[in-house]
Design goal:
Blueprint lengths: L14 H11 L10 H17 L9 H17 L23 H20 L11 H22 L48 H17 L23 H7 L4 H10 L7 H15 L5 H16 L8 H30 L1
Length: 345
């Protein structure tokens, strides 16, 4: 009697997470390497899927990553990197001018990969009872890169690291419904997209991705300690039309974009979704505390957060989310305070 193969998880609810993973892996492993799909799937489950589906998680889940990547996709479609960096999720890229420096070329080629890795790993370690989740998550991201370097080194049948891998596909199929990509004989090699190098071909690139990913993840420990490039204020109704120019002309720091993605749930346009998807799930994650202690601590945290003049660092997300984020959190504070007062009666 043959053994029953293990069931594969279904990824239909996280297409952008899978797309981001595929984009990263194609810069880390040669697609032609023997067993590359199995290696990719094994490490996706080990480093991402199994971690973000742990039982203590209610908000810091795969859905959180999917939401962040949705906002990143919107950002790249509506604003983008203005040709400074290769897009992280979007297809197509504006080539750098010939006069670009080596530093500019390094950032152009690898910033998008670092942003995606930062999203995928920033909450990979999440235990509400410990205070070093960010440090542990950054260390896990580096461990992942070490593992992928070893996988690349021992892959048989693949090309050397300085041979480029093809551009990532525009979508990644669900593991439960694999498909095979075919190439028609009529396709001309001249029509193929420009090849993308593997990370391991360049020691400077490897150091850039490692250092940038770890630094970005560590900055999520204290979002508001990172100062925006420019102070922004919410416009009056008569000034609203002027915000479009500020958004259009902004040259954004990738770290600021990443941090804005992490906070984007605060500005969800539906207060009800904010409450159900975020506030109530955060409360579940901290249910090991007595309810009264949680109410006081959460209200104090949000009240202190509100004292900061600017939460979102980029004009794109500030003008889109800041006002609603302040309304949502103010309502949460009111509800927490009301419950606390009622419990004292």
């Amino acid at each position: 009697m043959s053994a029953v193969p293990p069931l594969l998880p279904t990824y239909a609810h996280i297409p952008l997470v899978r797309r981001a993973w595929t984009r990263c892996v194609t810069r880390l492993l040669m697609p032609a390497s023997h067993g590359v799909d199995d290696v990719s799937e094994e490490h996706f489950r080990r480093f991402v899927f199994h971690r973000y589906t742990e039982p203590q998680r209610h908000y810091h889940t795969l859905e959180h990553l999917e939401e962040m990547l949705g906002h990143l996709s919107d950002y790249e479609a509506a604003h983008g990197w203005q040709g400074r960096f290769r897009p992280a999720l979007a297809d197509g890229a504006v080539p750098l001018p010939e006069s670009a420096s080596n530093t500019q070329r390094l950032a152009y080629e690898w910033t998008g990969t670092a942003v995606l890795l930062s999203v995928l790993f920033h909450d990979a370690v999440y235990d509400p009872t410990r205070g070093d989740n960010e440090e542990a998550s950054a260390a896990l991201a580096i461990e992942f890169l070490d593992v992928m370097r070893r996988e690349s080194d021992r892959a048989d049948g693949g090309a050397p690291a300085d041979v480029a891998s093809p551009t990532p596909p525009s979508s990644h199929p669900s593991a439960s419904s694999p498909t095979t990509t075919t190439t028609t004989a009529a396709a001309s090699l001249s029509d193929a997209p420009p090849p993308l190098p593997l990370l391991w071909a360049d020691a400077q690139a490897e150091a850039f991705v490692r250092d940038t990913t770890a630094a970005f993840i560590l900055k999520t420990k204290e979002h508001l300690s990172v100062q925006p490039r420019q102070p922004l204020r919410l416009p009056s109704p008569s000034e609203a039309t002027g915000t479009a120019a500020a958004v259009r002309d902004s040259v954004d720091d990738p770290l600021h974009v990443f941090l804005d993605l992490d906070l984007a749930i605060l500005g969800h346009p539906s207060p009800d979704v904010y409450r159900r998807r975020y506030a109530e799930n955060v409360a579940r994650e901290y249910s090991h505390y007595p309810r009264a202690d949680f109410l006081k601590g959460r209200a104090a945290f949000l009240t202190g957060f509100a004292q900061h003049a600017q939460w979102f660092k980029t004009p794109f997300f500030f003008y889109k989310l800041e006002a609603q984020a302040r309304r949502n959190t103010a309502q949460e504070v009111a509800e927490l305070t009301a419950e606390l007062q009622a419990a004292r009666l």
